[in-house]
Hints:
The chain is α/β, with parallel strands linked by helices.
Amino acid sequence: MLDFKCTTDEKGQAYIETSLQGKLLLTIPQLNKGTAFTLEERKAFNLIGKLPIQVESLEEQTKRAYRQYGAFVTQLKKNIYLNNLHDTNHVLFYKLVSEYLSEMLPTIYTPIVGTAVKHYSQEFRKPRGLYITYSDRDNIDEILSNRSNPEVGLIVATDGEGVLGIGDQGIGGMDIPIAKLMVYTLCGGIDPNRTLPILLDVGTNNQELLDDPLYLGARHERIAGKNYDDFIHQFVSAVEKRFPHIFLHWEDFGRHNARRILNRFQDKLCTFNDDIQGTGTVTLSALLAATSASHSTLEDQRIVVFGGGSAGTGISDQIYDAMVKSGLSEQEAKKRFWIIDKQGLLIAGDPHLTPAQALYARDPQELTQWACADKTNISLLDTITHVKPTTLVGCSAVPGAFTQEVIETMAQHVKQPIIFPLSNPTDRCEAIPEDILNWTHGEALIATGTAFTDVEYNGRMIPIAQCNNALVFPGIGLGVQAVGATRLTSHMIWQACQALSQCAPAIKDPHAQLLPPLSQAQDVAKKIAVAVGQQAIKEGLAVKNQDKDLNKIIEEMFWHPHYLPYLKRSPSE
């Protein structure tokens, strides 16, 4: 662990206390201020002569960094520049990106992070976070003790099996927890010095990676079955022991593991799966806004979900729970869903169904009257034709799956079809908004998984909402930490969903976006945090700040990039 401590003096002035000095201090991104070290600090920490004479403000450094950023042409090169800046100076990195959030968030997060993941081993420059390999399973506590940040309240962990829409990326998946934690800080005000990204390296089934001589991960097929489950249990046990008040975020696990892990541990510690719960929450929020804009209700929706993995079933779960809360019986709510996966429409009795899929599988008897060429593999178009859905959600990573025929068939039966092609990166999207609007004569209500610019249709500009999880998980994390929640419950997630949907421009203007823009992400996160924290208190799951003004607490704890003064201490202190 690094030798530094953020504390306050008798007047309440925050400062950093450390024994590190000289060249070493300049190489620690959590501590490096570069040309912003004052003359007094340069003398105290043996930095005289190691920096140019000018002492700059953070604002001056940010202007230079933005100019450097603009010199790169490709998005991948810009991503690499920003990550190198993050490896050099945390405060300057977060100041720069927060100043240009809408412009830079897609570069450090989706969709460009998917490209970075693919090039991880080739572009590797500096390790970040912790790598826990299966072969080191008996040394997990020692590895956790080797972390850089002394105090940790938030961990994002992945095993790299289900990265975005590009699948098994092995050790390259490490870029995902790193990017997620950046978003937690940028949008949710989580102090980056209290976070930790972790890659659980259990191998990879991606033969291209195994054959790559530059691949940096464990060179064997993925550990599976009991060995995998035991490894995850060892990991969680070690995390609980060392960080008893941790918020553990799971990201990009394979479909056969993601939900099992969440179900296994969600009642034992405060934990969250963004692919299941985060994606479901932000999609439900967009759907609530769409029903408001179309003057319909959630209970009236007939929903086809194309893609039955963790995201697809997670989205279905969130909408299903909301329908039950709105008054439908469990059986009535389940009848509102038709999920399509690799084997076509999910049908009860299929031995290949996952437990999550089985909840939504249709009774074979109801399909006897369907005119389908192959009733053992009922297609998306067949389903659209017979179901006449009001809502179509795509999380399949099958580009172009929402064809003109599919969309036009849907639009024949509903005036304002709700269409959410959510797969990312962009080249995995089921359909592009411009095509959807043309095929529905401008009537579709659209939200996408990746960012698209506004679309001009018949002389008017139609804004396209992005179902970006960055609008929801930072606020959940902030709310959990504000009250020290010991669990994250479905009721807390429902409160997060309602808070987000109320921020949607479409609530006030039916022609506006179904979700707020990323430029408002910080304000949205604070609203979500208050809602989540209040619900945790209501459920008796909060261990602090129960009797305090949560709005004030959250404003006070919201981290903003700024330099603190430094005081030197001896190594023995």
